[in-house]
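thought: fold this chain, then report.
action: predict
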Amino acid sequence: MKPHLTSRLVAVLALSLAAAVPAAAWADDHKSKDHEAARTALARGQVLPLTRILAIAEQRAPGDVLKVELEDDDGKLVYEVKILGRNGRVRELDIDARTGTVLKIEND
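observation:
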């Protein structure tokens, strides 16, 4: 992954893409406390660091990261990563925020 394309993304998202509470509670509370929750969740080992998630995404779908979101998927926190592939196609990966398991890859 090219550092110049993701450095700003990492800086913005590193503090806002994790949760310190169970996923259902995070969904209700994330708008006001997402930065604090991200730091706490990361410190507690409840979610993987964004740099690790991006490395996993790069292994499975090489290209440039366009967008990263953290979503509550039926009580499980999932990173949704959109990547512009080297072939010009956009791919979306769903990655378990706690384990780093790639749950789904689809072409947009």
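thought: worth noting. The chain is about 40% helix and 30% strand.
final: tokens above.
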